[in-house]
Write a structure and sequence with these properties.
By secondary structure, the protein is an alpha/beta fold. It contains 20 helices and 19 strands. The strands form four sheets. A nine-stranded mixed beta sheet has the order 5-4-1-6-7-8-11-10-9, sandwiched between helices. It is globular and about 70 Å long. Bound molecules: 6-O-phosphono-alpha-D-glucopyranose (G6P). The site of 6-O-phosphono-alpha-D-glucopyranose has 9 residues, from helix 3.
Length: 524
């Protein structure tokens, strides 16, 4: 009882920070969040107990901040064996939701047949939708939509999306208050359609964390896939994107794909089969307090001491998943070119790259990791023995491979240049984390293709992602920028990130939900 009261009290205190309409909304609804990757993953220990680890990636990082305001239920795919076993245990015990020890969310897992899941995640979501939405194809050769893709769509993507809808419905149906469902990302495009069919009264919002390309590029997908995606997405009350540009492309894609849409461009509304969808943009950000906390943790401080031994007179940093859309190889090409153009920097600059291996079930990711290793090996060999630093041979690039968030944050404190040259990126939170934590008035080199460009470009050096030559020049410009100019831009970036942190992202979505679905709530 005491715990229960404690929890309610804490929730009330947290809610006080929220704008009134959002607070009122949360007090009257049950919030259901759904994403492929959940806030925690379970691992079975040898003694039979379960340990948990925080889920990785931008979506989990951002959504976790919602827990400050409400006790949401998070529906996610069981991705590890531990998740599956924990879900089985929950079923045996009759637990409707799992309450992980050290997580802020109650979780409900979607347990799919591993082969269905493989088709959904490793055939459709990542190589197809992710590649499409980041314009990653070499179109004369890719993609080949063959019988395997069709099978993966029909017996993987559709299947797992249906299962997600079923789990969400089970939570919604047992909820005493009207539910709001906040769906995340490209894995779940078909879910809103299934939910709306079963429960026309549900309030549905879908946030797309990655770019949304133009309708012409979507034509590389079969019309059946495109129609199914647009049809389902228009079952949402609100569809949110990182930037107005992505939101606009979504509207055009619906117009190009479906016959019976009625669009009000000014109000950013789409009417389709009697339902209205509002199309909005909400630039995602970081949880400033949480990031600072991790960066000040013992773990991070321990790494900091080690990282300091790799710093040089000038230090360039990048932090990314080892992911083709991040344009890591061209970043190294640009560095190589910079060293060719400016030999006066030989021995005086180090490039530290912290890369997290990702999606290794997908061949392109394995190949990309190989490409990264190859170019780093080539650069380090090319410049071997050209210079020494503290009596040791200079190594121009240093790769740190592995998933270690405190270590990456620790490194961000010390860069002179942060290279964010992604080809396309929904937002890119590294640019924001770096701006917040850096202590050297470091310069941000930022790709025009990153969503963050819209907010941060005024105080960054812009690069067009394929332009290796200009990226090399930008590195030189950054490293020779006068200190007062560096300070001015670094401070401005930090201010922007602090002002528009994750709370702004959450507030604006909740306010829009409160405003646009107020009527539905009253009816419910
Ligand atoms: C991006 C996507 C997320 C995804 C994350 C990590 O941030 O928008 O949906 O969770 O990458 O990728 P993964 O496939 O490992 O979940």
């Amino acid at each position: 009882m005491a715990d229960e009261h404690g929890a309610t009290l804490n929730a009330d205190v947290r809610r006080r920070d929220l704008p009134e309409p959002a607070r009122d909304l949360l007090s009257r609804v049950t919030l259901i969040i759904a994403s492929n990757r959940g806030p925690v993953e379970f691992h079975r220990e040898p003694d039979g107990s379960f340990s948990t680890r925080r889920g990785t990636g931008g979506v989990v990082t951002a959504i976790s901040a919602v827990s400050r305001f409400t006790d949401a239920i998070w529906v996610a795919a069981a991705m590890t064996d531990g998740d599956r076993l924990r879900a089985e245990l929950a079923a045996e015990r009759g637990e409707a939701v799992i309450e992980p020890d050290n997580a802020d969310f109650r979780v409900r897992f979607v347990v799919s047949d591993p082969e269905d899941y493989d088709r959904y995640y490793n055939h459709i979501s990542n190589p197809l939708l992710w590649f499409l939405q980041h314009y990653l194809w070499d179109t004369p050769r890719q993609p080949d939509i063959d019988h395997i893709t069709w099978d993966a769509w029909n017996n993987g993507y559709v299947t797992v999306n249906r299962q997600f809808a079923e789990e969400i419905l089970a939570v919604a149906d047992s909820s005493a208050q009207p539910p709001i469902v906040m769906l995340q990302d490209y894995h779940l495009y078909l879910v809103p359609g299934y939910l709306r069919e079963a429960r026309p009264d549900l309030i549905l919002q879908h946030f797309v964390h990655i770019p949304w390309p133009d309708p012409d590029y979507w034509r590389l997908l079969p019309v059946e896939f495109r129609r199914a995606i647009c049809h389902s997405m228009l079952a949402n009350d609100i569809v949110g994107f990182q930037t107005p540009r992505h939101a606009r492309s979504f509207v055009y894609t619906c117009e190009a794909t479906l016959d019976d849409v009625d669009i009000d461009y000014r109000r950013r509304e789409i009417r389709y089969r009697g339902h209205t969808t509002y199309v909005r943009s909400y630039p995602i950000s970081i949880d400033v307090d949480a990031v600072r906390r991790v960066a000040a943790s013992e773990d991070a401080l321990r790494h900091e001491e080690h990282i300091k031994t790799f710093l040089n007179e000038h230090t360039i940093l990048r932090v990314d998943r080892a992911e083709p859309s991040k344009n890591i190889v061209r970043g190294f090409q640009a560095y190589d070119r910079f060293l060719e153009l400016h030999p006066e920097f030989l021995g005086r600059v180090n490039f530290l790259a912290f890369l997290v291996p990702s999606r290794l079930e997908v061949a392109e990711y394995v190949d990309y990791l190989d490409d990264i290793n190859t170019i780093v090996g080539r650069i380090n060999t090319k410049y071997a023995n050209v210079a020494e630093r503290d009596g040791v041979a200079w190594e121009p690039v240093r790769l740190f491979i592995g998933d270690d968030y405190p270590r990456a944050l620790a490194a961000m404190k010390y860069y002179d240049v942060l290279l964010v040259n992604a080809i396309f990126d929904g937002m890119n939170l590294v640019a924001k984390e770096g701006a917040l934590l850096n202590r050297r008035n470091g310069v941000l080199i930022l790709s025009e293709g990153a969503g963050a460009y819209q907010q941060l470009s005024e105080h960054a050096l812009s690069v067009s992602p394929a332009d290796v030559e200009s990226t090399a020049h930008a590195i030189y410009q950054a490293l020779t920028m006068p200190p007062e100019q560096r300070a001015y831009h670094a401070q401005a970036l930090r201010r922007l990130v602090i002002e528009q942190d994750i709370l702004a992202w959450i507030y604006s979505q909740l306010e829009d939900l409160a405003a646009t679905v107020g009527g539905s709530l009253v009816r419910a």
